[in-house]
Amino acid sequence: MTWNKSIRQVHRWISIVFTLTVLANFATMAIxxxxxxxxxxxxxxLFLLLxxxxxxxxxxxxxxxxxxxGMVVDEQRRRVP
Length: 81
Description:
Elements: H1 3-31, H2 36-40, H3 43-58, E1 65-68, E2 71-74
Antiparallel strand pairs: 1-2
């Protein structure tokens, strides 16, 4: 598995963890006053989602462009205007 696919898979799993922590937060709020650690538990996955999401967002813009036969193409050999 390549580095980019690994980051994408980690991003997906972190999003599941984040969703579960938010649901647990709402469930404990419905019962009563939640402990502080439950309230702040979604923050770690949220920051990890931020960093992996920014990486995935910048990935298409960071592809290496090379010149082949006088034409500028990217790594996937598509024409670039």
